[in-house]
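Appendix B, record 7
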Amino acid sequence: MTGNEQKVRLLVHSQEQPLTLIFEFWATEYVLDPHKSVVVELDNPDPHHPPEIGHLSDGICFWSSGDHPSVWTLQGESIEIF
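Structure tokens (predicted):
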């Protein structure tokens, strides 16, 4: 990191159904159980190409040009995404 990068942090909460979180361009995903929350942190190394977030019928697709997003529980525990 050069010091010019920024990060975008989002609180994601599932409701009655599981919520699939898809991370592109890495082709990885994580299924968030009903009534659970996680924090997703996306790199934003290029302000001219900010992270994109798309809603799907059963989930959310995240795309950013930086490193793979970091995901952790509200208690601060890191979640490995495959």
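Remarks on this record: The chain has no helices and seven strands. Residues 9 and 41 are 4 Å apart (CA to CA).
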